Design the sequence.
């Protein structure tokens, strides 16, 4: 075949398969929403999943938040003291965490910590034909397996992001006040004056909620769609991390531009 | 794992999350200090508002008594019309001055109210007539240079 035609057909098949996958993922998302009444009827399944995705992610979230906050405190102080406004360090740490780092870093860690686990679990369930067995018994795998995991992710993400921001601010406080010696009162009062509840805290929560939906649905779809082989599951797990991370960063830009343009 | 242990862990997780959110709202955000009670709306006209923005504070003697609600441009008089929301707890006389100042050298701009001596108080929808525009740095510098230049020949 003509090399130009070959290139075009490659490009075309790539684009169609991407769009097809996007459509299939959207269909899974809608099905999950439709079946969520049925999944909520067995609420203990969702609680169990919150334990595995949310509670088990706490340690990595808290430790990384602490270090991110401390680094922000150090870097921020180093730059701000050149302009003689080292008291603003509290505002800098709080706004950076609430608006961007809290939701985004939490979502990235969540995709690595919980998203991969979801994909591998569902992929393996599919490979060992547990999902087909459920369908044979007239139990919808979407209500029983996908739904609880989806809602657990969506509920856990804003909680984890709030914890991330709060712990990060504490880390920043630890570096700025006892170690560097910024005034304790100025740190909190400047933060209090310049951080707005509606525009900073709530917008951060909305972001993490959207990231929660995106992250879990990508992980669930990749697992649900994985070829039922060892190689297929491993590839699906890799794709979960790559796709989730890129989606989070892209969505972050879109959400931020909407929020700033208000 | 036992079902009750699981529930306890998840309950703890959610409780920590809510505590963190409350901490962010109260300690970090300005949910407690920002909320004005009942307010009344007054307007003020300015030739130049400089960098004043909606939600900027309205202060009197340095205390925040209200917020700038919105800023419009009136083509009848070619002036900026600034609406101020002031807390009902703080009534101001009719001849109050509303000046635009800057906090610090490079800080944000705010409106400062200086109470006059009138017996009548401002009501909802009133207009503050005594206003002073924002100081524009370029104007100040050019005035200074102009004065300097006119002094020169006397030497």
Sequence:
């Amino acid at each position: 075949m003509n090399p130009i035609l070959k290139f075009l057909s490659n490009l075309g098949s790539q684009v169609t398969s991407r769009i097809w996958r996007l459509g299939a993922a959207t269909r899974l998302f809608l099905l999950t929403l439709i079946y969520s009444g049925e999944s909520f009827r067995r609420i203990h399944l969702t609680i169990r999943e919150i334990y595995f995705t949310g509670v088990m992610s706490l340690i990595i979230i808290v430790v990384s938040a602490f270090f991110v906050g401390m680094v922000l405190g150090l870097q921020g102080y180093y730059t701000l003291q050149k302009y003689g406004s080292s008291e603003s360090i509290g505002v800098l740490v709080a706004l950076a965490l609430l608006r961007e780092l809290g939701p985004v870093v939490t979502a990235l860690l969540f995709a690595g910590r919980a998203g991969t686990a979801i994909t591998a679990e569902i992929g393996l369930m599919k490979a060992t034909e547990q999902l087909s067995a459920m369908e044979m018994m007239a139990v919808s795998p979407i209500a029983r397996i996908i739904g609880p995991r989806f809602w657990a992710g969506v509920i856990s993400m804003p909680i984890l992001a709030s914890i991330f921001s709060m712990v990060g601010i504490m880390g920043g406080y630890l570096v700025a006040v006892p170690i560097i010696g910024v005034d304790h009162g100025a740190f909190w009062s400047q933060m209090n004056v310049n951080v707005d509840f509606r525009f900073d805290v709530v917008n951060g929560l909305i972001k993490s909620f959207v990231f929660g939906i995106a992250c879990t649905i990508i992980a669930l779809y990749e697992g649900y769609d994985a070829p039922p082989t060892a190689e297929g599951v491993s590839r699906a797990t890799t794709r979960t991390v790559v796709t989730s991370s890129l989606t989070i960063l892209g969505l972050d830009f879109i959400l931020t531009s909407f929020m700033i343009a208000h | 794992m036992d079902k009750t242990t699981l529930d306890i862990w998840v309950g703890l997780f959610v409780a920590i999350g809510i505590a963190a959110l409350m901490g962010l709202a109260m300690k970090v955000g300005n949910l407690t200090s920002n909320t004005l009670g009942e307010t009344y709306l007054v307007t003020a006209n300015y030739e130049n508002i400089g960098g004043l923005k909606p939600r900027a504070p309205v202060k009197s003697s340095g205390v925040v008594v209200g917020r700038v609600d919105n800023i419009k441009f009136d083509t009848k008089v070619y002036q900026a019309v600034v609406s101020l929301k002031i807390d009902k707890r703080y009534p101001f006389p009719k001849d109050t001055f509303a000046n635009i100042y800057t906090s610090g050298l490079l800080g944000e701009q705010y409106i400062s109210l200086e109470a006059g001596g009138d017996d009548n108080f401002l009501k909802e929808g009133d207009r503050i007539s005594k206003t002073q525009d924002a100081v524009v740095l370029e104007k100040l510098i050019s005035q200074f240079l102009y004065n300097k230049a006119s002094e020169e020949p006397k030497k």
